[in-house]
Design brief:
This is Hydrolase. InterPro entries: Isochorismatase-like_dom, Isochorismatase-like_sf, Isochorismatase_domain. The chain has eight helices and six strands. The chain is α/β, with parallel strands linked by helices. It has a single domain, classed as Isochorismatase-like (Rossmann fold). The protein has a six-stranded parallel beta sheet with strand order 3-2-1-4-5-6. Strand 4, helix 5 and strand 5 form a beta-alpha-beta unit. The longest helix has 18 residues. The radius of gyration is 15 Å and the shape is globular. 42% of the residues are buried.
């Protein structure tokens, strides 16, 4: 199954000020997540940022919010965005949800498992834009989501599948902007 621009939305889970320093390769995660958020914004995907207890853990990194003007920000206390019942219609009205963020084995995992259990959603987890405090927990989280039927993808898969063709009107710009030179 391929991701489709008309059917997809992006969910960025808990990339927050006080949480980011704790994850493995924090700078890389932020750079790769920003790359994905920028691509989604350029393609007009509905984007939602979740925040786990922002009063204590801070808010979504400003660099990510700046990359997605008009994105929705929701807060939660449950680890799962589904259990928190915080996901807006703009995200849920699409059949495909592309997920990135942190931590792979906690909030991302629980959200993805509950999206899958709720049915009627194809979930695509961007492996190079999710992170945990340890590589082991990251890998275990990805394996468990794959076993539950989530599609494990890369950022480049997202870009190429949403564009579908080199004839797409945005292909030249996006490939020159996001696929040349050193990548995060």
């Amino acid at each position: 199954m391929l991701m489709e621009l008309e059917r997809a939305s992006l969910l960025v889970i808990d990339v927050q000020e006080k949480l980011v320093p704790a994850v493995f390769d924090a700078d890389g995660l932020v750079a790769r997540t920003r790359w994905l958020v920028e691509v989604a914004a350029e393609l007009g995907l509905a984007t939602v940022f979740s925040e786990q207890y922002p009063k204590g853990l801070g808010h979504t990194l400003p660099a990510l919010l700046d990359a997605a003007p008009g994105a929705t920000v929701v807060d939660k206390r449950h680890f799962s965005c589904v259990a928190a019942d915080c996901l807006p219609a703009s995200l849920l009205e699409r059949e495909q949800i592309i997920v990135c963020g942190m931590e792979t084995h906690v909030c991302v995992l629980q959200t993805v498992l509950e999206l899958r259990r709720a049915g009627k959603k194809d979930v695509f987890v961007v492996a190079d834009a999710v992170a945990s405090r340890s590589r082991e927990n990251h890998e275990l989280g990805l394996a468990r989501m794959r076993d539950a039927g989530a599609h494990i993808v890369s950022r480049e898969m997202v870009l190429f599948e949403l564009l579908r063709s080199s004839g797409h009107e945005r292909f030249r710009h996006l490939s020159q902007t996001y696929l040349t030179g050193e990548q995060p």
